[in-house]
Amino acid sequence: MADIYQAGTAAAADNVGLSPAPPVPAIASLSAVADGQRLISRLTAPASGRGLAVARITVQYTGPDRPRAYVYVGTPTGPNLVSGTRSGTFDESEYTRSLYVPAGQDLCVVWLSTQGEALARIEYQEA
After folding, report:
1. How far, CA to CA in Å, does 43 sit from each of 15, 24, 67?
2. Mean pLDDT along residues 95-107
3. Burial class of residue 42, CB neighbours in 10 A (0-12, 13-18, 19+)
4. Which residues lie below 8 Å from residue 25, measured CB to CB, with a gap of 6+?
5. SS3 for 54-100, per residue?
6. Are 38 and 112 spatial neighbours (Cβ–Cβ below 8 Å)?
7. How much is the pLDDT for 49?
8. pLDDT tens digits, one per residue of 59-91
9. Which residues pair with 57 in a beta bridge?
10. pLDDT score, position 96
11. How many CB atoms lie within 10 A of CB 125?
């Protein structure tokens, strides 16, 4: 007789006690849009949820200049600044201590230019 898994049979007990597979993160690829003298990408945590745990942010910029890029949680103002780069491009990951975005708040990536194209790739899970 072949060893075939059938739900609800003794074979289902083979996985008892094993850790479940880690959750697969969602990935948002966001093109920046012009906002005055800057480009902005936004990922908004659902207002009714528990917020987002951001594990990785990849920021890319192509254009004639090399603008600074900043990452904010909440409105893009000084007190909400959490990271940045002088080149407009970076790849930052924090898998053990994710960046928390509260429910209803934005994760904003801001480039101080409007001359090129910018993209933010964000890996996240519901917190």
Report:
1. 37, 18, 21
2. 91
3. middle
4. 55, 56, 123, 124, 125
5. EEEEEEEEECCCCCCEEEEECCCCHHHEEEEECCCCEEEECCCCCEE
6. yes
7. 84
8. 999 999 999 999 999 999 999 999 999 999 989
9. 92, 122
10. 78
11. 14
